[in-house]
Write a structure and sequence with these properties.
Strand content: 25-35%
Number of helices: 3
Structural class: alpha+beta
Order of helices and strands: HEEEEHEHEE
Strand order of the largest sheet: 1-2-7-5-6
Low-confidence stretches: none
Distance between the termini: 17 Å
Oligomer: single chain
Length: 152
């Protein structure tokens, strides 16, 4: 089964390619690697949730936000390759979690993105990762995700 078919089988809808809000490009390809710019949980350019984990946002909401952010990253990759089927390996995922003081569950939050990548890509979706707590993210987003992907 292709990765494009797997997305549909999971009942997911791939978002449109997010438009950069500032001065950058959605993704850059260097050789066989694509570096996808950081994405927040937006739909059609609108942030779906705001706040910090450990205060306004629950771990479950943060996980869902991470899933949406990683789908936006995949849309960036697809924008360069034309299809998710060009992906050979998810290499690296960096997740940033807007964290209230004392919140230490960043890895659990970013698992939302990691688990989704494994659901879509299987072994190909297993990746190296960082899950970092930060004071603030753009527009008050609770999560931002960026990734590096190997393509054919």
């Amino acid at each position: 089964m292709s990765f494009e078919e797997r997305v549909k089988e999971l009942g997911l809808t791939m978002p449109e390619l997010p438009k950069p809000a500032f001065s950058y490009v959605p993704a850059v390809q260097v050789g066989k690697l694509i570096f996808a710019s950081g994405q927040t949980p937006t739909v059609a350019g609108k942030l779906t949730i705001q706040g910090k984990l450990g205060r306004e946002v629950s771990i479950e909401q943060g996980q869902e936000a991470a899933r949406l952010a990683v789908l936006n990253c995949l849309a960036e990759v697809r924008g360069l390759t034309g299809s998710l089927d060009a992906i050979v390996r998810i290499v690296k995922l960096n997740g940033y979690v807007a964290s209230a003081e004392g919140f230490t569950e960043q890895p659990r939050v970013i698992n939302g993105a990691s688990t989704l990548l494994e659901e879509i890509f299987g072994e190909t979706g297993k990746h190296a990762r960082a899950a970092l707590g930060v004071a603030e993210l753009p527009a008050g987003a609770p999560v931002e995700v960026e990734m590096v992907v190997e393509v054919r």
